[in-house]
Amino acid sequence: MCIAIEDIALGTSGYCISLETLAMHNSIDRNKYLVGIGQKNFSITPPDEDIITLAYKAASQIITKNNAKNIKFLFFATESSFDNSKSAGTYLHELLQLPEDCRIIELKQACYGGTAALLLAKSFLETTGDKNAKCLVITSDIAKYELMSNAEPTQGASSVAMLLSKENDNAIALLEHFGGTVTKNSNDFSKPNYMRYPFVNGKLSIVIYLSFLKQSIKKFLSEFNLGIEDFRAICYHTPFPKMAYKANDMVQKLYPELSSGRYISDIKEQVYYNSEIGNSYTASLYLSLLSLLEQDCNDFTNKRIGMFSYGSGSTCELFTLIISESYKQKLRKEFNLKLIQNRKFAEYEEYKFFHDFTYTNDTEIPVSSDSVIRLKSIKNHVRNYELL
Ligand code: HMG
User: Fold this and answer.
1) Residues above pLDDT 90, as percent of the chain
2) What are the distances in angstroms from CA 104 to CA 18, 70, 113, 137?
3) What's the confidence (pLDDT) of residue 169?
């Protein structure tokens, strides 16, 4: 029995900043950001948007009265958590009106958290006796770095929600193999509780990412007795678009037989959403998948897609999806493009205000968002959301 991704949806914030604006303010050659990093714009969150509002925007598109009652496990993957105990999923459980017998858990292993969530959801669905059971996997993150730091152009925010069930005619893709895992304690990126922004050794992180990718592909192919030609495309964790190009170039060098006109020569379409939205940690890989399926005009029906998931600290895994026949009808290409195009462009001062905003208890949050949901206040340590 296979486990299916029955639906997948994107949520991002209502605001973004252009990398041209940022480059001008930081007195950096714009081409370093636009070409060197490969980023055009990135989503930024006003104070009344957080990982819950992003997640709600994504998940509410795929939850209906009919399927909600069958959701038996909500996995919430994030590394932008605001609470060390109460899981972000608790808020979503209420907002989405999920059933009382739905389990919830928040997962953390840097950007790998979403992939761990998929793997756990798959195991749960394979073992439960309930044939109608579904799992909701939510990846939601806000990447923030210090102003004027080298990492500043690689910020972003989004959520990708996925509904998983046992194989049925309604699938977008089937989960196939998981493997090629590599784990090593490394200090490329972390977010100590006493620090406001991540501690990041950017150059080291790139070296580790590429070294893990190289080992992971070799291991994966040998574990499942596959050849590189069995992949129709590979999506890479994309902290910034140039990273995916570096990854793709390395794979081509490792397997030169691929350079003869296959997908792998150009990954422009698969990083398009990332180049607009920026890094959204756990969601980034799934954003790239959506971008590939919606922006690349090739037909991926019955094709195998490799998904390279990397989480600093560090662990990585490669897994494969087999794309289903009805995938194009189920995607929300026009909606997602509008979501991206309709964001308001912030000027530098507004971006700085959003970036530096500090949450405290007993605050009414200033109104910025005017769509779907907003964080209204924090009172007696309870976050209050308002559906619009
Ligand atoms: P930097 O050190 O300022 O950048 O920051 P640089 O000097 O290396 O320049 C970047 C590129 O721009 C270079 O190209 C330059 O040549 C080029 P490359 O050599 O890489 O091909 N460049 C120009 N191009 C055109 N015109 C110009 C120009 N000037 C320079 N005028 C860095 C870059 C990525 C290190 C920084 O932004 C950073 O630290 N980012 C955060 C860390 C990160 O994203 N790491 C990626 C791998 S780790 C990962 O993905 C995990 C993560 O998502 C976290 C998690 O798992 O939770 C981050």
Assistant:
1) 91
2) 36, 14, 14, 10
3) 80
Ligand 1 centroid to Cα of residue 145, in Å, is: 13
Give, in order, the Cα–Cα distances in Å from 242 to each of 134, 200, 346. Answer: 36, 18, 24
User: Bridge partners of 139?
Assistant: 77, 160
Q: Residue 265 pLDDT > 60, yes or no?
A: no
Tens-digit pLDDT profile for residues 331-343: 999 999 999 999 9
Residue nearest ligand 1's atom 21 by CA: 36
Compute, in angstroms, the gap from residue 150 CA to the centroid of ligand 1: 8
Would you give the distance in Å from CA 107 to the centre of its chain?
Answer: 13
Q: Work out whether strand 41-44 and strand 199-200 pair parallel, antiparallel, or are unpaired.
A: unpaired
Question: Cα(37) to centroid of ligand 1, in Å?
Answer: 6
Question: What pLDDT shows up at residue 142?
Answer: 98
Is 77 touching ligand 1 by the criterion CB < 6 Å? no
Pocket lining: 310 vs ligand 1, CB cutoff 6 Å = yes
Compare 265 and 1 and report the one with higher pLDDT. Answer: 1
Quick: pLDDT tens for 167-197: 878 899 999 999 999 999 999 999 999 999 9
Whether the Cβ atoms of residue 58 and residue 373 lie closer than 8 Å to each other: no
Residue with the nearest Cα to atom 10 of ligand 1?
A: 36
Atom of ligand 1 nearest to the CA of 284: 53
